[in-house]
Design a protein that fits this description.
about 120 residues, alpha/beta, Immunoglobulin-like, 4-stranded mixed sheet, 3-stranded mixed sheet, 1 helix, elongated
Length: about 120
């Protein structure tokens, strides 16, 4: 019986580090829902600031809720080569790896006068 107990301990000691390494190998993920709204004639993506750590897989669901025309608005993060057109009533999803540290502007590439935001990638 003691030998069986020792064998179980040996197996557990070999398997436990593998399970821990598999769990830590998964990359961190952050998910956001960003909505385009209009307030007193100004169109903005909200939340306006997205904060993640470097190395994070970033998933963003984009929803255009602006009731006035035009019915399409852009969501662009030029530093990450992202430029999506989001049609009212047709949500879009994007994902990218935040592999550069810094503060990067988020803009509407279709209507540059709209209020933009920023992506903050921390070390």
């Amino acid at each position: 019986m003691a030998a069986t107990f020792v064998r179980i301990l040996v197996v557990l000691s070999l398997v436990t580090p593998l399970a821990v390494n598999v769990a830590s190998a998964q990359e961190p993920t952050m998910s956001f829902t960003v909505v385009n709204v209009e307030y007193e004639g100004t169109k903005v993506w909200t939340p306006g600031t997205l904060v993640v750590k470097k190395g994070t897989l970033v998933k963003v669901k984009l929803i255009n809720n602006v009731p006035s025309d035009p019915n399409q608005h852009g969501f662009a993060i030029p530093a990450y080569n992202i430029a999506e057109v989001v049609t009212r009533g047709e949500p879009k999803s994007i994902e990218f790896k935040a592999d550069k540290e810094g503060i990067f502007p988020i803009t509407c590439q279709l209507h540059p006068a709209h209020v933009g935001g920023q992506l903050v990638v921390l070390p």
